[in-house]
């Protein structure tokens, strides 16, 4: 079943469940707890309009609708229980606490009733839908397009182990690529799709969803290089564990019938934080674009008066998952500043205008990027986006740079706060260390710290 269609189905089921649950709760509360006649009034109508939307937002923050094909029955039980518990308490304090009651027992009865009704009406449709998807996977009628990296005996053993499992694990093998150009033992079992050097093309053309690296995890150097090239999209990456991994407890098993694999999960920010981050980006961008309009007009006039040329500057940058987008800024340089090809600016760059120098120090030229944030090209906090010309030079020396494309680039970043604008590739590599550090420690609190220091730089005008 298509992932988007499945997400739509569970969204509709959740909305209908919340609608029915609130209606039934309202009726039972009036007739069984308050012992009054049930009447349909404005409070009831407001509830059926507002409450289901609130539940959907809670589920969204919880991450319920992210990759719904990978939900399983125990997980749907746990997330439904936790969401119902939190949501019932929230509704109690928001809507029920100020009601007239005959005793506190009615409060307790109302909360337990709401929890029970909502949990059962929500969980049963979810369970049926998830059970259907799980059954399709176990029967090998559905799954995830999987690529094997490696073609040795180890890769063959892995392929046979997965195919001989009593229940399907969800791996639908599309083919394999090899590493040394020699090992092709898997060719008798699945198509050979090329060498590791062609991995980006293979992933794109075959719409790969999972990659299994059939190497020992003790081969750290080779694994590091391969994983660096694979990371950056929505891929699930798995590797074979060695005995050290098993003894150290780094092997996470979610399916007792599955093959012994390590799930390489480099996402450190919980789902609810990622959802909150995007909602915050949208709300903050709308507010900023509205409130800063007078400043934008003033800066536009100053840019126009400072030198001939357009007010705005647009340039192609590489964003999340390697997607190309146009970044928008106030122009800070003379026109035709790169007539001899891409060139980084320096502290005393003669191409920078007087007003441009001020805007760069105070970061005012970046404020228009709230528009890029609003439309989803960027985030307020994230690694600074670079041009493909300089990315090609960087990855020749440090392939890990590609890891930064796993997330949306930002208006400001840890590297930008600590280091500022880079004047050459060496400085780009130095700044990259801070951005990689951010990538491994992402959190809402860290984002707010970076934003705070950015505001300090803006008011002090000490940006590099």
Brief characterization of the structure:
With 464 residues, the chain is of the alpha/beta class. Helix content is 53%, strand content 11%. It folds into three domains: 3-138, no CATH class; 144-264, NAD(P)-binding Rossmann-like Domain (Rossmann fold, 3-Layer(aba) Sandwich); 271-460, no CATH class.
Question: Care to describe what's here?
Answer:
The protein folds into three domains: 3-138, no CATH class; 144-264, NAD(P)-binding Rossmann-like Domain (Rossmann fold); 271-460, no CATH class. Helix content is 53%, strand content 11%. α1 (3-33) crosses α2, α2 (42-62) crosses α3 and α3 runs antiparallel to α4. The longest helix has 35 residues, at 104-138. It is flat, with a radius of gyration of 27 Å. A six-stranded mixed β-sheet has the order 3-2-1-4-5-6, sandwiched between helices. It has 464 residues and is α/β, with parallel strands linked by helices. The chain is built from 16 helices and ten strands. α5 (153-163) links the parallel β1 and β2 (171-178).
